[in-house]
Specification:
This protein has a 5-stranded antiparallel β-sheet with strand order 2-3-1-4-5, covered by helices on one side. By secondary structure, it is an alpha+beta fold.
Length: 96
Amino acid sequence: MPSYRVSIGVGLLHPGVDPAGVVPAAASAARELATVESSDLAVTHGEARISVRFTVADDEHALAVGQHVVAAVDRLGDTSRPTLDRRAGPRWTAVR
C-alpha cells in the first residue's frame, strides 16, 4: 500500500488551544480514515510545519485524508501551504 504525507504550515493558534495537542489532533484526524505511520512538527524556513505520514490504497483516498487533516488543523489555528506527497522509492512526489 502506498505511503503518503500531508504537511501543513501552522501559525497562530486559536485562544485556548494547547500547542502540545495540535500534532496529536492532526494524527488523530488521519487515523479516522487511514493507517498512520508517523507524525511530527518541524520548523522549515522559519515556519512551523506539521507532517502526518499515512497509508491508503490510492491517490483519491489520500486526497480525502489530506483534506480531513487540514480541516482538523484549521479548527485549531491558522494554516498555510498544505501539501500532499506520495512516496515513490526514495523520493516524495506531489499528488495533484
